[in-house]
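Could you please consider the sequence and fold appended to this message?
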Amino acid sequence: MIILGISAYYHDSAASLLKNGIPIAAAQEERFTRKKHTSSFPFHAIRYCLEEADISLEEIDYVCFYDKPLLKFERLLETYFTEAPKGFSSFIQAIPVWLKEKLYLKETLSREFTTLYKEIHPLTEKQEHKHFKHAIRKKLMFSEHHLSHAASAFYPSPFESAAVLTIDGVGEWTTTSLAYGEGNTIKLIKEINFPHSLGLLYSAFTYYLGFKVNSGEYKVMGLAPYGTPLYTERIKSHLIDIKEDGSFRLNMDYFNYTTGLTMTSSAFDELFGAPPRKSEGNLTQREMDIAASLQAVTEEVMIKLAKHAKEVTGSDNLCLAGGVALNCVGNGKILKENIFKNIWIQPAAGDDGASLGAAYALYHDELRHERNIDKTVPDAMQGAFLGPQYSDNEILTYLDSIGAVYHRYSEDELLDKTADALAKENVIGWHTGRMEFGPRALGHRSILADPRSTSMQRTLNLKIKYRESFRPFAPSVLREKVSEWFELDVESPYMLLVAPVHPSKRIAHEETAEGFDKLSTQRSLVPAVTHVDNSARVQTVDAKTNPKYYRLLKKFEEKTACPMLVNTSFNVRGEPIVCSPRDSYRCFMRTEMDILVLENFILYKEEQPDFEDENNSIEAFELD
């Protein structure tokens, strides 16, 4: 049974392939088109999935789309009619797009798949195209948005049964759901509907603070520790009414996202005493305090929802998905509360992962196939390494074609030289194995550095990532050493939990600095991965799931007595994470990285020929 799951037409388009209930391949379309958060039909991601599984389009049994467009259109129309004549300009912008492609999605998808079929089989006749279009149309299925999220969280998890929380902006109508997963079924218990949305509340503040919605939420989370939550009560008394069970309602007088062209209203501006920050404007202590307040409110809702999930289901296990499940600070707070014995979070928790969830939902909930949990592995996600891999021969062919200078080593030699270079504070682009699925680099498409360096955080932000200097970096740490360095002793393979640095590794200091001046204070023995509140977004690495990266960490520990590395995604601001050797080499040459590792090849920047590229200046990147 082969099921292709897809998400498209909103943001973070992706494709995932399930074979007999096991993920074979999954990737975001942005990794191939190099257009971040692309909403386009995932042509390239689908082709990759087919190639990885070594099957043809015709061999797919079902295609499942991640939500139900007619329900979403119903919500759109009902919202506009309820608030008419307000929002007319927004309405006339949205409707043509729906009438052109989104409303008649079965026809749109059939047409897109037929286009793909023609590309794969360029010599076929028109009659064959018609036959294929008719056949693929019969195979098209649709899952509900939050069921797709819930399925992506529960079915790959290691649990026989679990409470399942999904929290995001909005699907068709649902913005938050609580379900119970057991065996091969997921039963919805309760939900919160649009316009009341924790994800849209966070996005509204993201917009107000001058960042881009659907991509800048991470920045708000990273900004929060610089501030004090002075506005928490203002948010709770005016914007959101939170109940003890975690349910909530937003005061829509302050928001404009239901029918407007902006996220917040003039009343929101009045409440906080100023219009939204311009994206190029300075970040002041006020913005930091607002971010801290929003984060505090978000954490309160997440904790109350988790406590209610425990009360209702009685389960020892919790699964999380939806965009808000990427709030790793909130996840860490849920863990610290000891509400559940075990927590598992889908690494591709956003709409990209919903493509996989759609396939899972069809396989188990609709087609009633049994669920078999492999107890020999941590979960079914295979470390999230579900993307393309490139052979040494493919890499060699590319490097020779551009005249690159490289050195080929055995794995032992390569790891030893890489660890030596890292210990000398070189910054390394690390490309190995299958690409990660989801927004995090987990040691296969990563930029690596020495966490002990006092200057590395600033160097990486300004010279490598070309992004704001306040953004923190994450540590990858040997699983068996995590509790020695952080207040955490559970698996965190997907970098979705934030935990404090262990007190024994902190450096005592008197906190006198404010705002971004806090960056100049050394707070621990690993300052490059210690945020200003002494926290870190931890990734644990084990030998079975991630063997080569694990061996590199062990080698670095042998040389430095430090069992971790700085791990940040292999990209620059505004660009998707690299996929191919070409992507990695271009990013390497366009930044101030010192060394590039491509599988078993090492490239040193000073040895490379002059780099000529169709976009060879950093201004070519879409800075957001």
Remarks:
- DSSP finds 20 helices and 21 strands in the chain.
- The CA atoms of residues 431 and 598 lie 5 Å apart.
